[in-house]
Amino acid sequence: MITPPVVDLTLILPEMIVLGVALLVLMADLWLAPERRGYLVAASLAGVLAAAWVAAGAADGVSFAGMYVRDALTRVGQVVALAATGLGVLVAPEYLRRYNLDRGEYYVLVLTAGAGAMLMAASRDLLMLFLALETLSIPLYVLAAWARGNARSQEAGMKYFLLGAFASAFFLYGIALLYGETGTTRLPDLTSALAQQPAGISAAAGVGLLTIGLGFKAALVPFHAWAPDVYEGAPLPAVAFMSVIAKIGAFVALLRVFPLALGALADQWTLVLGVLAALTMIVGNLAALAQSSYKRMLAYSSIAHAGYLLVGVATATPPAASAVMTYLAIYAAMGTGAFAVAVALERSGGEADRIEDYAGLAGRAPLLAAAGALFLISLAGLPPTGGFVAKLGIFAAAVETGSVGGLALALIGVLTSVISVYYYMRVAYVMYAGEPDQSGGVRLHASPLLNLALLITAAAVVYAGVLPGAVTSFTQQVGALLSRL
Amino acid sequence: MLTTLIFLPLAGALGIALLPRGREGAVRWAGLGVSLLVLLAAARVFQAFDASSGAMQMVEQAPWVPAFGISYRVGVDGISLLLVGLTAVIFPIALLSSWAAIADRVKAFTMAILGLETAVLGTFLSLDLILFYVFWEAVLIPMAFLIALWGGPNRRYAAIKFFLYTMAASVLMLIAIIATHVLGAVLLWERTFDIERLATMVLPVRTQGWLFAAFALAFAVKVPIWPLHTWLPDAHTEAPTAGSVILAAILLKMGTYGFVRFGPTLFPDALVASAPLLAALAIVGILYGAAVSWAQTDLKRLIAFSSVSHLGFVMLGIAAMNEQGFQGALIQMVNHGVSTGALFLIVGVLYERTHSREIADYGGVAARMPRFAAIFTIVLLSSAALPGTNGFVGEFLILLGAFRTSTWWAALAVGGVILSAVYLLWAYQQVMHGPLVAKHPERLLELTRREVLVFVPLIALIFAIGVYPKPLLDRSEAAVQAALERLNRTAATTLPARAVVRVQR
């Protein structure tokens, strides 16, 4: 006789709220008059807020035959993912109306991707992780191709989809190899199985393939080549959302797999992850130097930030795990904010993508330019902004290991940050000192929701920089989870 | 009280942000008013300061990021007090001097200056390493904007060079700060970035050497110590007058302050061990800076290189490691702020009238601007360390201190004193005397009343410190002695240790 697995639906209440609202929006869009699409935005935001409120306070537990876990990492990861989802909704409506792309399905896709990232944070099983990864990725492929009339958006979606499917296959093959070696896909069982027997070649290959799959999603060098092309072609609000949510999903999963599940085998993978982190920081920052497109620059910048985050995963100590979550929370604000500034601009019927398009912005829109400069300073990791706190946590954890590798990663990290100052400040300089385009080619678009998104992200970046205690005390529980192992 | 002092300018800047657009007069007055309030607050601190104690005073503390052991902790001692005073004096002068020179984006300019003042005061008063680093780096942003937005023709290059050069050196200090903290967690069983707590641990000399090297690099770029000075002439030349004044008078002092603050407390052995190297670099800087100044054709570059020379004296005083040297270094930091600040203001006055910095474009100015000539003479003699002016007190003490440590150091450094008189008098002669060569002599108008007002406090300080330096020396004495005590104590404990090692070998 087969006993049905214990299912505790209350445990997945936050995910159910988000997906429920997504279905509601999907249905409502069929009947709602186009000028009333504002209700869809409101419903999406309400769902995100409700889910975040529930997720922040939900009790721990394991359910679905041990495939789903709600613990400290789930809690922090889901709240951060929901914050990113909410911002992803806020930056979109005005842009979508401007380019006549306004359809309710946009919000459905954003919410579904958000739910995917939330499920990744709650995965206790590799198969569950795979399903969650796909739930995150497939909406992002569609969002990249959202501008249907635009060939470059189509190209971006296609490229992202093909390469993403390829990476998913790697991930799945990795799971198969690990299953062949250990006979399980449960993360906790994997730990004990690999600890008992000396890890064979197929187990090592399995872990390697998992790394490739997640490395693709996180845009780690050398699996990053898709990112600049996809970012350049995809519509701006979609890029703003996907650059953040994909990172949250991928890094929460990396924390689940490496420090939490494979912590006992740390000496076998820290070197590999460390080398990947160093490569990602160096290549991302150097390539960003050469960009003349704002979106491509931010694409390489997001690759560089993946490198800093990976330093935290490779360090794999409790403070490092907390620091990764702090970094993700702050990155959600500053990354979305930096793209949101671009959403507010338009050049001759298209996106204002060249760095020159930002020339003289300070004279025309002082607040928007100030917010833009703030996000760029924060991305560069200068105090007193959140970006500094994020990097400080990661580098402090790396130095604290006392190992040569940790010190080397921290050194590479701070020195590449200096390089990054050059390309970020170049844009800030253009905003303030550049001569504005007199032909009137660049136009400003303000909308209350976009302004709200800019206000929230800017306030979060300053708040996290001036009073980081509020953020770090929330993310610290992740480190506590790791230290209990 | 110190917290109020630090954040008053920032609060003022935020208040100014709320003023309506186009009200430039109001913005100027508000900025000046805020900086004068800061001066008042600093005067109150100066008055309440207990000169008999070498410990930190008026300490204010609050947990900031308890999880990392970071706290908000500020306090003042005799070393930081003088620099806080200097900062509070220079900023109103800088604002007043840009009344006419800055016509464009006055609001942003005033906010940048006030934001910079908060960052600088925070740097001098922080007693927590992370807090210190936050203020230290925060200085870069407004300063780079001041150069980049209101600077000369080559401003973009100068701003980026300034930013990247100083930041590249600072980030290594960040790693050293974290490493010091980690060592503190191991040795003191306490997660703290508190300078005074961390100073209680005794680190092996090799470890100290590495950590001090990272700190010293950040400070050396800021000072700047030869051969790390190459950013300075560009930044100075391109910055607007107020920016040059603040850069020379205050920002360079952050580097020398770093040596005095962190050397004796955290890395005493390393500081003692590196004294000969620091002295050698200081002497090279003194002579090189002076010689290169002489070769300049641009008045602003001349003064910029003279800073390299004058700050070499400060570093020499620190390297002497005795009371005269330290006291001289401290007083010379203030002096350099006053007299070089005034020199940049003098160039600013000329530049506003003729839009040229070339020495060759001037001549016979004294005949058309007699009041200006008198002020220039006083400032020049102060910079050349004539007895009776402030420069003499500082350089004399430094040379005395250096002499007591090594006759050679003092003998070589005296060459710098002579050279500085040579290039300053030469520049004065070229600009002020001889035939009138200006293309538009009618533009060489006498100083306005506002411009005279800018110079009055500086001239007063030149003579006050020159004749009666006691109020300043008294206040710094106890703190200097406390620092020297730490250095001597470690020298006494490490020498036997080295002897033991030698015997074992």
Descriptive report:
The complex is a heterodimer of chains A (485) and B (505). In chain A, helix 13 runs parallel beside helix 17. Chain A is mostly helical and 485 residues long. In chain A, the strands form 2 sheets. Chain A has a 3-stranded antiparallel sheet. In chain A, strands 1-2 form a two-stranded antiparallel ribbon. Chain A contains 20 helices and 5 strands. The model of chain A has no long low-confidence stretch (mean pLDDT 90). Helices cover 75% and strands 3% of the residues of chain A. Chain A has one domain. Chain B has 505 residues and is mainly alpha-helical. Chain B has 2 domains: 1-240, no CATH class; 274-467, no CATH class. In chain B, 76% of the residues lie in helices and 3% in strands. Chain B has a two-stranded antiparallel ribbon. Chain B is globular. The termini of chain B are far apart. Classes of the chains: A mainly alpha (485), B mainly alpha (505). The A-B interface holds A 322, 362, 377, 382-384, 388-389, 392-393, 395-396, 399-400, 402, 407, 410-411, 414-415, 417-418, 421-422, 425-426, 429, 432-433, 467-469, 472-473, 476 and B 63-68, 108, 130, 133-135, 137-138, 140-141, 144-145, 148-149, 156, 159-160, 163-164, 167-168, 171-172, 174-175, 178-179, 181-182, 185.
Overall shape of chain A: globular
Largest sheet of chain A: 3 strands, antiparallel
Neighbour order of strands in the largest sheet of chain A: 4-3-5
Distance between the termini of chain A: 35 Å
The residue-averaged pLDDT of chain A reads 90
Strand order of the largest sheet of chain B: 1-2
Number of helices of chain A: 20
What proportion of the residues of chain A form beta strands (DSSP E)?
Answer: under 5%
- Per DSSP E runs of 2 or more residues, the count of β-strands of chain A stands at 5
Structural class of chain B: mainly alpha
Order of helices and strands of chain B: HHEEHHHHHHHHHHHHHHHHHH
Helix content of chain A: over 70%
User: What is the H/E order of chain A?
Assistant: HHEEHHHHHHHHHHHHEEHHHHEHH
